[in-house]
Amino acid sequence: MKKQTITAVIPAGNEEDNIERCLKSLLWCDRIQVLFLGQDKTARIAKKYKAEVIKFDKPEFHDIVGVQKSVNWAIDHCQTDWMLRIDADEVVTAEVKHEIQNILTKPQVNKTDLMAYGIPRKQYFLGDYLKGGDWAYDRLVRLFKPQFCRYEPIVAVHEQLKVKGKVGYLKNPLLHFSHPDLKTLITKFNFYTTLEAKQLRNSLFSSFLKMLFNPPYIFLRWQLYHHGYRDGIRGFGAALARGYYDFLLYFKRIKYLVKKSK
Asked: Which of its termini does the chain have fewer beta carbons within 10 Å around, N or C?
């Protein structure tokens, strides 16, 4: 029985601090492609690990829209049976690797088979991995057959892969070094809320209400319903941070609407 093949695709901006850790976890793949959207040493490091580096240096590729366009390009040019889309700040564990390799050994019989898999992520937050909270329920589609998947429509924030077929889910999580320190957390929150505030359709009044009431609701949901209390003081801080995200988001939405009305 012939084993199916797989390409790991990493869209990466200035990720010289993360890319090596990610690449080391992908050396078992048939191909590794780094879709380079930045200006630092990421590409040079990737080439040391025999990764194919495709540079997207046009301005339209330097944001989240660019990430989706670059992955769609990789999908269109993919030469393997499967694609694994990984961020540079993520790591494929041995357990995830074994799950994927088991999938690769199974021949696809017909179009009713699974065409993609969501993979949970274990979030690294200010010094340790979180056991609970909203982020523990991430199940992003990252493993897929390229001919059945695409980023469509292209969106400015919180992209979703469109799958033509059935989606399954792996049991083991990727490691996601999403918020290793406070500086990274603040930078990411500021970046995403600025983009998202412009995409929201909330009115001024609705945004004001959400700015006031969403943060305490999210804090309680994180701590109680999603068991963030299991992480102790770190979980308390993560819940506060997630609530602050929505406060910042709707504060920026209000500013955007006020400025637009002048």
From this structure: C
